[in-house]
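User: Show me sequence and structure for the first protein, then do the same for the second.

Assistant: Starting with the first protein.
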Amino acid sequence: MKVIKYILLILSMGQFFPLESFWQSNFFWFFIWIICFHLGWFYMECLQYKQINSVVLCLLALINIWLLPSFPYLMLGLLTIELRELFSRKKTVLILSLMAIVSGFIWSTLTIWPQVDYLMFTVSIVIICGYLAEQATRLEVQETSLYEFRTQADEQEERLIEQKAQMIAMEEIHTLNERNRISRDLHDTVGHTLSTIVIQLAAIEKLTEEKMPQASAMLKQLHHFTKEGLSDVRQVIHQLKPKHYQKFAFIEQVHHIISDFEHNSPIKVYFNNNQLLWSLSPEQELLFMRAIQEFLSNSSKHSQADEVRIQCHFTDSTVILTMMDNGKGTDTIKPQMGITGMKERTKLLGGKVQIHSALNKGFKVRIVLPKGGSSYDG
């Protein structure tokens, strides 16, 4: 629409510049003043300025009708577009109608009546410009709606990806738990039984070695087979027990905390992590657990949030825990006991805490810790 408004402004200048009376009076500077108002309208984004400007422009339009040597129909078309950008269709029609009534009063008072063709042309200009402004407004609304729809679609897709990642992580943890349980059961049952049999066979072999050499030889062979069987069972147990199982225990504990929280709160929590490159020390795990519990508790009590996002990101030398909500936020962060304790524990582990918040922008806590445990090779 800016292009159309510039065209109307230039044509308005072309309407008056050829008139000799326009250049021989103060009309020229008056017109330049109006142009400056319009240019300010084009580039000022402040709504209050535009609303004040609209009132001034309406008054100037009325004065134009009275003072200018020619009827400013193109300027009225420009004013129609600008009014529609600020007000609803009904308010724009009302303002233009009031202007028409006041203009009619001025014309009748001064006995200055424009020609019928000028009136028809002016009405046409106003209608066309009003239609263009209406279409531009509808297009802007549609673009805004489309942008909001795309934003919501992107957010929904991101949530689906996070949920899928959580499901995969939970399935992996469940599988690892099951393998660990099976290996533990094999060790506690079959492993112990075979170990007992091996010990008993060795004892019987010694007792029968002198008086029953043939039986002793058979027992020796059976003892050898049983030891091989026990060795095979131990190898199977070792293969079943997940490598670096302990590294998934931390993730599982986080999921348990989130699950318990969601069971007692309407807030939805999204958690994701990248590949665990190294193990957390017990002190680091405890710090992260308490930090997550503290953040979830504060979000539930104070933030009025309906969504919390938690991310654990490992690098070669650091681990970063980021927690954020979409609550009301605050411009003043008060040093509460929970935050103070979190900072103190983080400092003891050689890390740092970053806290960000703003009014209506939610709350965000970022904890960075140095590498604390051994690396995972695969």
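Switching to the second protein now.
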Amino acid sequence: LKPEQYRPVSLTSHVMKIFERVVKINIMKHLIEQNLLNPGQHGFVPGRSTKTQLLQHYCDIFETLSEGTRIDTIFLDFAKAFDKVDHDILLQKVAKHKIKGKIGLWLQEFLNNRKYRVVANGEMSDVQDVLSGVPQGTVLAAVLFIIMISDVDENIKSSIVRLFADDTRISRKITSEEDKVLLQKDLNVIYDWANKNLMKFNENKFEQMSHGEAKNIKIE
């Protein structure tokens, strides 16, 4: 068995799922009405999907190509993103998104004091505390995660960041050597965000792609 290839799943009752759905609907309504969603996030957001994310990315590429220049894109992926969410940091961001009062307290109880067991080859482990992560398999897991990652591009000054849940792409038009340096600086900002938020990238899934040709600069 390779434990890293498995994901924990939270089993909840039908009544709990119905209640979660009611909470989720109200949270999403609040986030949309208050314009609190990251505009670059296309995962688990009403009216957005992988198609809308790709369409925006294609528009970025075509706009750059029409200008006769080049755009560089770096594709990033968080390692075990949903499992690594720190509860205290998430709850701080929940409050920052103006989700307080009874709902805020209920979300705190929803995340904390969870237990788990592992069954392998017919053997069951002792009960362990769940110390991090949004409960995968629950209705609220996705919306809690997009709240967690909502400020990933908060300090990005010049590059474009597109998201689908934890799948992240950062792009920039390359018209000079300075643009390459600025793209690297913005990439460093995202790395700093990950470290600050106790999350890690899966460097085995990093990809870099260029479209077009930058004039008068050295292409490495």
